[in-house]
Structure formats: structure tokens, C-alpha cells
Amino acid sequence: MPAQLNEREVERRMDRLLAEYDDVPVEEETWEDSTEEFASAIEHAESGYLGGAYAWVVREPEDATTLTESMPAEASPDARRALMILNRANEKWDLPGGGLEDGETFEETVRREVREETGVECAVTDLFMLRRVTAVPESEEVARQFETERVHFLYVFFDATYEDGSIAIQPGELDGAAWFADPPERMLPANERRAESWSPEKAKTENSGPASE
Questions:
Q1: What is the DSSP string of 107-140?
Q2: pTM more than 0.70
Q3: Assigned domain for 208 exists
Q4: Based on the structure, what is the number of domains in the chain?
Q5: Residue 69 in this model has a pLDDT that exceeds 50
Q6: What CATH number does the domain containing 174 carry?
């Protein structure tokens, strides 16, 4: 078993993304795992798991669903809105997205995951953050036990625009999903970072799309 898992593939994917998108910040995180957590990280990597892709999906006012009499006034399509989800295991709003599947680019992953989680079709327009995670064992003894020093994962955060569909979550998968003009108070770090420069009144800008991997 190699001393490091996923390292070369993570670097290859990062190089491609950094070459195709401009001025992308990269976060480096190291997770010190317990024996059980490190065993799980190894199992995930050996099964082909490399990381995940998530999107800040923006819907323009003209693309909003027509209001019905039962819908509240605050749902009025008077501003640009961003799509967020509420996972069952977390009380903070998150970005839709999920794990990379075999043979997918990160762009393909995020489109599929947004569709599966929310029923919304989106188009990737830009990349606002990369997060490289390195899982390490809590001790050298654990590293020797598994003959592995590090396991690498890559998490990719895109900007995207709404293309089609209405929110329709799968029962048992999420606690909710919604379009926000003003970001909610309880958000996970990736949402908070993207929300810092978010304005519901900001005019739509056109970004060049990515090339395929």
C-alpha cells in the first residue's frame, strides 16, 4: 500500500482547475484522525472517493417561478437569490453538492448533485474556492498499522447560474432547500465565504465556462 493515497490525482485535478479558472484561493486543511477515522479515510480512498463539488447557484429575478396566492409576499421575485440546502445532520445552511463519482469531472459532479438534491438544473460559471484536505493518523503507530501516512481529498466550490427546475427535495435526504436574497444567519464556512461578496442587487456578470477535463 502506498504511503500516501490520492496525492497524485488530487494534484492533477487541482492543476487543471487552477489553469482554467482565474485567481482561485486554495485552502489547505490537515485533519488529525483517530484510528477509526483514518481507517475510514483509507477505505473511502481505496473505493475511489477523491472529494466533492458544491455550488453557489444564483437565480435571476426573471427566472423565478410565478407566485401563487398561497405563496408569501417575501417570495416575490424582486432580487437575485442563491440556493442553499439544510442537511439533516446539520443546523446550518449548506451549498448543494456532493461526492465525485468515477469518471466525472468536478463540474459534472456538481451539476448532477444539485439536480439530485434539489431538482434544480444549473450551469457552472466560475470557481470561487478549492479546499485540499490531508487526513493524517493521530500517531506514527497508526501510520505503521495501515502502512499509510496521508490520505488526500479535494473539495471544489463553484459559482453557477440557474437554468431550469423547481425545488423538489428527496424525503429523508434533506430537511429543506430554499432561495435566499439575504443570506441566513446560520451558514457553513463555504457559504459564509461566498456570501461576503454577495449582493442580491448586483447585476449579472458573464463568466466564461470551463473546458472539459
A1: HHHHHHHHHHHHS-EEEEEEEEEEEEEEEEESSH
A2: yes
A3: no
A4: 1
A5: no
A6: 3.90.79.10
Q: How many residues does the chain have?
A: 213
pLDDT tens track for 39-52: 999 999 999 999 99
Range of the domain at 128: 4-61+79-197
Radius of gyration of the chain (CA): 19
- Residue 150: inside a domain: yes
On whether the CB atoms of residues 119 and 168 are closer than 8 A, the answer is: yes
Pick from 81, 87, 28, 30: which is nearest to 201 by CA?
81
Place of cell 459564509: 192
Q: Across residues 195-203, what is the average pLDDT?
A: 77
**Grid cell for residue 150:** 496521508
> How many other C-beta atoms are found inside a 10 Å radius of the C-beta of residue 43?
11
Apex 206 CA angle, 203 and 211, nearest 5: 155
C-alpha cell at 68: 401563487
User: Cell for 32?
Assistant: 488529525
Rounded to whole angstroms, the Cα distance separating 157 from 155 reads 7
Where does the pLDDT of residue 204 fall: very low under 50, low under 70, confident under 90, or very high at 90 and above?
A: very low
